[in-house]
Specification:
By secondary structure, the protein is of the alpha/beta class. It has 9 helices and 14 strands.
Length: about 325
């Protein structure tokens, strides 16, 4: 999500100055690839770019060739890095051994896809869109879809289409504004997440303490936060009474991730006192965070955010070397 913010920022800067820009979108991969379909990169005529479509290997090629490749309109650039492919691994430094198809299109201030990305981020409403990338003369055509849209089969007839659902940024609610919450908020913002900090103690919940957060609020009982499908929460007030009140507020909201700082024994007592004993939601993670041997606020923040990322993607958070099959496949 950080990349989308950077792409939109560069798009705004480029269009404000009348500078030309090209949007590159990965629309199909075969075999191993560094990025999945949906990865994007915006590059300007002056050589600035935001986002990425690879580990840094393909970007340099596009900076050189994207302009003449799109002289006659949208096109698709195919990179074959397999042993039988036309691109040798030493030419681009690629070691993926796969094929990547990249849709290239020139964009201006009226770009429908970039406007759509902006709307998703601003209003937190997902959008599903089908992108045509073959036949080449129809590349760049799109259809905005509703769930189970009956128009899709007809739209795909005779075409190769990439269908993606663009989702809002993760919204992280941090209950507790102690010193250990500072790196958690900062690192989450680095990822491009929305971050809101709450604490019942006004001398803790101070805006200057969390300058990057989207909101810092003195929380009061009976004021549940606004949540959606992409919201996660971490409770870390270090006050048993406040944690109990927060847990009672959050438990009915059916969050996909609810982390509780502190030992499991403490959580069991919290659940009992909250009247949740025996009905513990699967989304509750206690102690919050992955087991990485974290010590200190910054490492704990890393462990917590890694577990949230895994949970929202349906992963266990184990070592990739122990995973069978593709590392990109849905769990």
């Amino acid at each position: 999500m950080k990349e989308l913010e950077q792409i939109l920022q560069l798009w705004g800067t480029a269009t404000a100055t009348g500078e030309s820009a090209i949007l590159a979108t990965v629309v199909k991969t075969q075999g191993s690839s560094y990025r999945l379909p949906g990865a994007r990169m915006l590059l300007t005529k002056l050589g600035q770019y935001a986002g990425s479509i690879s580990g840094g290997c393909l970007e340099a090629d596009l900076l050189k060739k994207a302009w003449w490749l799109t002289e006659k309109g949208p096109t698709v650039r195919r990179y074959d890095t397999t042993s039988e492919g036309e691109i040798a691994s030493d030419a681009f430094g690629l070691g993926c051994n796969g094929i990547v198809h990249v849709l290239l299109e020139r964009v201006d201030s009226q770009s429908e896809i970039l406007k759509l990305l902006r709307e998703v981020l601003a209003h937190r409403q997902p959008a599903t869109v089908a992108h045509v990338f073959s036949p080449l003369e129809q590349a760049g055509q799109r259809l905005l879809l509703n769930p189970n849209d009956p128009r899709l089969p007809q739209f795909m007839d005779g075409r190769q289409v990439f269908v993606e659902t663009i989702t809002p940024a993760v919204r992280l609610l941090i209950f507790g504004a102690g010193q250990d919450a500072v790196p958690l908020a900062s690192l989450a913002k680095y990822f491009g997440w929305q971050v809101f900090v709450f604490d019942g103690r006004s001398h803790y919940a101070r805006r200057e303490k969390f300058p990057e957060a989207d909101g810092v609020t003195v929380w009061t009982k009976g004021t549940p936060p606004v949540v959606d499908h992409w919201t996660a929460a971490v409770v870390m007030t270090h006050s048993y009474t406040q944690d109990l009140e927060v847990l009672r507020e959050l438990a009915p909201l059916h969050l996909r991730y609810l982390g509780l700082l502190g030992p499991h024994k403490r959580t069991v007592q919290l659940l009992t006192d909250a009247g949740l004993e025996g009905t513990t939601p699967a989304s509750i993670h206690s102690p919050t965070g992955l087991d990485i041997g974290a010590d200190g606020p910054h490492q704990v923040a890393l462990a917590i955010l890694a577990e949230i990322q895994a949970a929202l993607n349906g992963r266990e958070g184990g070592a990739l070397r122990k995973r069978t099959g593709s590392i990109h496949s849905v769990a």
